[in-house]
Amino acid sequence: MRVGLLQLTSTADRDASTEAALILIKEAAAAGAQFVLTPEGTPFLAARREETLALARAETEEPSLPRFQRAAQDAGVWLLIGSIPLRDGTSDKLVNRSFLIAPDGAVRARYDKIHLFDVDLGAGRTYRESDTYRAGDKAVVADLPWGRLGLTICYDVRFPHLYRDLGRSGAALIAAPSAFTKWTGEAHWHVLLRARAIETGAFILAPAQVGDHGGGRLTYGHSLIVGPWGEVMADAGETPGLVIAELDLHLVEEARRKVPAWSWDQPYE
Question: In this predicted structure, what is the pLDDT of residue 220?
């Protein structure tokens, strides 16, 4: 199968950010991609909580979603929208939701980000996603024509038990759409994604935001496609754009046969 990962610099301008994504989705399809993935916060990525809350809509009212559904249908591709901040009506907080869209334009799976980015990086860089978002509580896998897909978002990558559970559920591909900060990305991005690929014996598909999103929000970029043996197959670097790679799903079976770590899981206290 051929996959395409978008690398975007989304901002609080929903129309401009959505249009940038739609252009690259079309380019990926023209390049032969059968499965296209976009980063976390695809239609808008705001620097301040108040901006995010003002932009967020209910799923049925989010204007970008039907545009992405039409794009998948027009291009005849499977499309993962990395995430859209949404109101879900259960609380005053938002959910950060991924959408898997089939070539007929139908939404086939939804995933709400489980692990929220509450950290203090020093130098005034404090993030409290839990002030704005409600955490999801369900791991999600979905079947593609080529194999099973596990869904995660950004900070989830620091929680290997989630990835292990997805792998055990048959995921040969695991998506990790992200908006990794520039500072944590420089230190941890490649290492974390390669580790999750090695541990699960799965392909990790990590489309990312990149650059300056306004208001001092900077993201690392380097959208990655990592093979099940831990090798980096594609790296988008530090500019918006697109990376494409051919995936051989037989390599998943091979990696898991070579190192059958799951069969050696031992209980401990």
Answer: 98
User: For residue 76, with 0-12 CB atoms within 10 Å meaning exposed, 13-18 middle and 19 or more buried, which class applies?
Assistant: exposed
Phi then psi for residue 160, to 5 deg, are: -60, -25
Residue 71's nearest CA partner among 148, 19, 16 is: 19
Choice among 27, 50, 138, 154 that is catalytic: 154
* DSSP H or E run through 35: strand 35-37
Out of 27, 40, 51, 199, the active site residue is 40
For residue 113, indicate whether it is catalytic. Answer: yes
All residues at 6 or more sequence positions from 139 whose CB lies less than 8 Å from its CB, including other chains: 114, 150, 151, 162, 165, 166, 169
User: Whole-angstrom Cα distance, residue 199 to residue 202?
Assistant: 8
Active-site residue, selected from the candidate residues 59, 61, 113, 231: 113
- Buried-exposed string 79-96: b where 16+ CB fall within 10 A, e elsewhere: bbbbbbbbbeeeeebbbb
Q: Measure CA 200 to chain center.
A: 17
Architecture of domain 2-259: 4-Layer Sandwich (3.60)
Going from N- to C-terminal start, the domains of the chain cover 2-259
* Structural element, H or E, at residue 163: helix 160-168
pLDDT at 118 over 90: no
Cβ neighbours of residue 118 closer than 8 Å, sequence gap 6 or more: 127, 128, 129, 130
Sign of CA dihedral 220, 47, 55, 151: positive
Closest of 256, 262, 180 to residue 221, by C-alpha: 180
> Strand pairing partners for 244?
4
Rank 47-51, 147-151, 257-261 by mean pLDDT and report only the highest: 147-151
Mean pLDDT over the full length of the chain: 96
Question: Is 154 among the catalytic positions?
Answer: yes
